[in-house]
Amino acid sequence: MSMMFPELYVGDVKNGMCAPNNKPKVLKDSASTAWVDGNNTLGAVIGNFCMQLAIDKARSTGVGWVSAKGSSVTNIPTPVRTALGTNPISVAAPANNDDSFVLDMATTAVAVGKVKMLRPIPPTDMETVEKPIPKFIAVDLQGIPAPYKTGNPIIQ
Hints:
- The protein has 156 residues and is α+β, with helices and mostly antiparallel strands.
- The protein contains three helices and seven strands.
- It has helices spanning 6-14, 43-61, 112-116, and strands at residues 25-29, 33-41, 65-71, 89-94, 100-105, 130-131, 148-149.
- Strands 1-2-3 form a three-stranded mixed sheet, covered by helices on one side.
- The radius of gyration is 18 Å and the shape is globular.
- Residues 74-80 and 150-156 have low confidence and may be disordered.
């Protein structure tokens, strides 16, 4: 499992926004399904844990379906109350002749990674950068479409 924005994970650890030493915990378990609490650890750790659990279940019963909560992937230090969360879906199924079906998708109009790609690399504290974000993708505190700019707490 890869990490798309490692600097965000490092920042979350330094700022105490996640608990990197915590371990995911299975809350509910059946032969083919599980519900996992990530205990606010790193999203890549939770994702790897859940993926391996799903693989083990699929090997045993033919189907492995695991959902998780408590991931630090979307932590943003802001007083803003989020209206909706994102619940990405990843599904894979083997097929004949070395084929397979793989689906990895966001359940939002646009994955947050696509918005984050609009930011300057590397961002600096000295600049105020504004780049257009397609309409209806991000809004400011007043609900007005927001450009990407350094310091915007909604899309950092």
